[in-house]
Amino acid sequence: MKKVVILGGGYGGAALVNELIQHHLPQDVSILLIDRMPFQGLKTEYYALAAGTVSDLELRVSFPIHPKVQYVYGEIQDVDLEAKLVNVEGHDPVSYDWLVIGLGCTDKYHGIEGAEQYSSSIQTFSATRKTYARLNDVKPYGQVTIVGGGLSGVEVAAELRESRPDLNVRILDRGPSVLSAFPGKLQRFVAEWFKGHEVEMLGHVSLSRVEEGQLYDGNTDTSFLTDVTVWTAGIQPVELVQRMDLPKDLTGRLLLNEFHMLPAYNDVFVVGDCASMPFSPSGQAAGAQGKQIAEVLHSIWQGTTPKLGKLKLKGVLGSLGKKSGFGIMGNTPILGRVPRLVKSGVLWRSKRHLG
Ligand SMILES: Cc1cc2nc3c(=O)[nH]c(=O)nc-3n(C[C@H](O)[C@H](O)[C@H](O)COP(=O)(O)OP(=O)(O)OC[C@H]3O[C@@H](n4cnc5c(N)ncnc54)[C@H](O)[C@@H]3O)c2cc1C
């Protein structure tokens, strides 16, 4: 029996498994998915778990049950590409015929002293649970600081505002404003929402040091007091991928050929936030790429050459609490209640589809 081993059952890995089992798998091929969790965690919604507006249970999607799919749950420690073995804590080494690396990303702290130690993360399910506990234990009228005004920072700040109206919520960014990668109209809409909901926004802040209860701005030599700091100021592939001595792009993502394979190891595919792609990492991109990897594997099994189309993404959606949001469809910003409803609809559909 030949084995496809998939590392990580997130947006990329889960899409791949679902796609593989929906089409006919050859008699002599089986799938093994390895993850530390016995379900997919819907990472795109971790901001709501952190803020306390959804429960843990609502963000878990069961992995598919299928006679050809097996699971190993544990911490993946490393991969030996020469010996074709994966080491998982507490398990015998796992061999593979084809490997897919889909382990997602972790925080990037840009070398800022104390940032990792004194901030809270939303990059893993487990870290987000801790962040939830810290945020919801802040004393009444305490101060929360979100570092990084990108999509996830904005979503955390807005959701927390609704969850804890008593708290002082502040969002810091190195650029002039939040969501600097988005069109001006959208930026202004979000800034107005924050102003109306008393979320403080501070731009041009370049943190030089983080301590317990205090953040230092290297630009102005001033500091900010804080009860809890949430880090949303950058991502990079997980540590296991950081350790791999292979060609990478400037953000540390693994370089691939047109079939999503490592150029030097054509039996190894990479999906999602670990893969170098022509667009920003996203759940949507990971899912689309997972489906293409399934196509490539089916072609290999049929002895044909895969013909992959261009990966197409539908746009970006973000939430501002439960009633408002923003998005980009094509090049057009959409603002207010409609994108929020669309985002809820997309989540509902993906839960049904994945589950
Ligand atoms: C707050 C927030 C909001 C976001 N909003 C959006 C959005 O609106 N739209 C969008 O498209 N994207 C969004 N994203 C980005 C999106 O979540 C990621 O791009 C996507 O999850 C990447 O998919 P992936 O399969 O690469 O990794 P993941 O979905 O992160 O899956 C990785 C899997 O690997 C497992 N894993 C990792 N390391 C190990 C290990 N050592 N051992 C065992 N298991 C391991 C994890 O448990 C996990 O199941 C958001 C992200 C955040 C944090």
TrEMBL record:
Q: List, alphabetically, the Pfam families matched.
A: Pyr_redox_2 (PF07992)
A single GO molecular-function term is: NAD(P)H dehydrogenase (quinone) activity
Instruction: Give the Gene3D superfamilies listed for this entry.
Output: 3.50.50.100
Keywords, ordered alphabetically: FAD, Flavoprotein, Oxidoreductase
A GO biological process this protein is involved in?
Answer: aerobic electron transport chain
Q: Which cofactor does it need?
A: FAD
Record domain FAD/NAD(P)-binding: where: 2-285
Which family does the record assign? Belongs to the NADH dehydrogenase family.
Q: What is this protein called?
A: NADH dehydrogenase
Source organism (scientific name): Paenibacillus oryzae
